[in-house]
Amino acid sequence: MPATAAGEPPQVRRRRRLSPGRRLPAARLIGPLAFLALWAAASAAGSLDPAAIPAPWTVLRTGGHLWTDGTLSTDVLTSLKRAGYGFAIGLTAGVLLALASGLSRTGEALIDGTVQLNRAVPTLGLIPLFILWLGIGETFKVAIIAIVVYVPIYLNTHAALSGIDSRYVELAEVQGLSRLAFVRQVVIPGALPGFFVGLRLGVTGSWLGLVVLEQINATSGLGYLMFQAQNYGQTDVILVGLLIYGVFGLVSDSVVRLIERRVLSWRRTLSS
Predict the structure, then answer these.
(1) N or C: which end of the chain has fewer CB within 10 A?
(2) Integer angstrom CA distances of residue 75 from 10, 16, 35, 69, 80
């Protein structure tokens, strides 16, 4: 440290904090709550046309009436079942295909090109063909949701597997690890960050696909409820459905984030 004048305290160089800072509690709720507050303020001030955009309290009152008469609860349960079945199938298919393609050159030759071709074809454009194949029942809806889910899970997991440093493979060979031990100790930890990215995209995709599918030859579900409300000009009912979809998406994404934070607690990142 350089010398200083008599009586003058030594200068201490301050380090610049380049990290984002300490995590705020319930930070992801601040944006939605601010949006709701702005919506309520604009409605109270009369800046919004009630026929086009009803006030938040009107939407909540409508949601309460729909829940009381049993309409909303039945549609919510139906939508959750469809999304759950499709997500489970898509998750399983995406992970298995990514492992088969990422750990084997033969698997990559057989699988990766096919998945890339599937990704290039708009999934919703497959709806007419799937209706002809599977009918207009629940099967085709679950199948479309599964396709929407498995593609991002496969792509991100496969990319994570391909990005594992080859030096870890060489180290595992030197240590004499078996194939199973190699997958458990090297492959899975290395692929988890990419897998969770794909999982978040898959969760969001399941809700996006659901809202479209439930407006096609459906007799129940939130999308069907919104489609019927459109025919009768019930804007408040449409907003009830949109808010529920938004809550489902936010909650499911938050659950995945929480699981990711627990599972990948060993990582030191800007997020942590």
Answers:
(1) N
(2) 70, 53, 26, 12, 9
- Evaluated on CA atoms 236, 242, 243, 248, the torsion sign reads positive
| Beta carbons within 8 Å of 85's beta carbon, 6+ residues apart | 142, 145
End-to-end C-alpha distance for the chain, whole angstroms: 34
Q: What are 45's two structure tokens?
A: 């001030």
Task: Specify whether the CB–CB gap between 98 and 153 falls below 8 A.
Answer: yes
Nearest of 86, 83, 98, 81 to residue 196 by alpha carbon: 98
160-175 confidence digits (pLDDT tens):
998 888 888 888 888 8
Whose CA is closest to 213, among 80, 85, 121, 124? 124
Per-position DSSP letters for 226-256, written without gaps between them: HHHHHHTT-HHHHHHHHHHHHHHHHHHHHHH
Over residues 4-21, the pLDDT tens digits come to: 555 555 554 555 576 666
State whether the Cα torsion 215-71-256-32 is positive or negative. positive
What per-residue confidence (pLDDT) applies to 9? Answer: 55
